[in-house]
Amino acid sequence: MFLCVFVFRRMKVEFAPLNIPLRRRLQTAAVVQWVFSFLALAQCCLAAFVLLCVSDWWILAALYAGWLYLDRDTPTSGGRRSHWVRSWTVWRYFRDYFPISLVKTVDLDPSHNYLFGFHPHGVLVAGGFGNFCTEASGFSKLFPGLTPYLLMLPFWFRVPFFREYIMCGGLVSSEKASASYLLSQQGGGNAAVVAVGGAPEALEARPGALTLQLLQRKGFIKLALKHGAWLVPVFSFGENELFDQMENPVGSTLRRVQERLQRVMGVALPLVHARGVFQYSFGLLPYRKPINTIVGRPIPVVQNPSPTKEDIEALHVLYIQGLTELFEENKDKYGIGGDKHLTFT
């Protein structure tokens, strides 16, 4: 016991007070289940499927495997969203934990399809999930007639049971065919949301970081041109403030290992920490920091089925200009100093 007390004193552990209001307890519980969903639910679902296969109920596993085969194209064909799941009360507690807000700068005409470029990726894309995979921040009221789809790495949609859950929120595969399906729908009304920096940008996610991986990211530009989808820069202030990350400068041994694992597995493995459930000094729960996601002005795009390299470069420059303007116009409101600017790599 004395050793534990000594360790806690050395670590300066700050415990949560006992008289915290129930509302805040529920907010923490909502975030616990969200973090669990991101970090462990897929593995639990896969284990449950394997156990079902070797149990007396194996016939159910066989039937579900047949369903997986028949339903294999759904994640690349708009998914299978559920307004009921997106409107669960738990998401309002999740929103209020940080809190998360969605800010509209201009109206978006629902007769167009849009490609939202979400920046920065952060560690767990909390602002992207809260704003585009739930109705907690009122996306449908802010942008009537638009349906958001957050693109996610394809292999998650191969995990039994887990795929059904994430599709309910409006998550779809990030394969090219998936984005093309959304952006090619006649009549408009679709908003494909892409975390442009991808998994590698998560390795840069730490408080104060303003580095975006964008200079070589041009696939989404080409996609917008081919389908005539209007580009919308989105910047989520506070996204990088949620976790501390172990120092991993480019060229370090840790960074090389992380980059190699990212190439092999497709996902980044940032070594992060923040707070816990009953104390504020360490753990995997994000800090209670506000996330303000600003949806910028759309960049009109004329459809070009066969864009040249010059066409892509020109639109890419316009996009970077639009994103930079969005950041500069709003940074003072969200506590970023006037001498701070975005850095593109």
Automatic annotation (TrEMBL):
Keywords: Acyltransferase, Endoplasmic reticulum, Lipid biosynthesis, Lipid metabolism, Membrane, Transferase, Transmembrane, Transmembrane helix. The chain crosses the membrane at residues 34-67. One of its GO terms (biological process) is triglyceride biosynthetic process. It comes from the Eukaryota. GO terms for cellular component: endoplasmic reticulum membrane. GO terms for molecular function: diacylglycerol O-acyltransferase activity. Pfam families: DAGAT. Its EC number is 2.3.1.-. It is a multi-pass membrane protein. It is found in: Endoplasmic reticulum membrane. InterPro entries: DAGAT. The keyword Chloroplast does not apply. Belongs to the diacylglycerol acyltransferase family. This is Acyltransferase. The lineage of its organism: Eukaryota, Metazoa, Chordata, Craniata, Vertebrata.
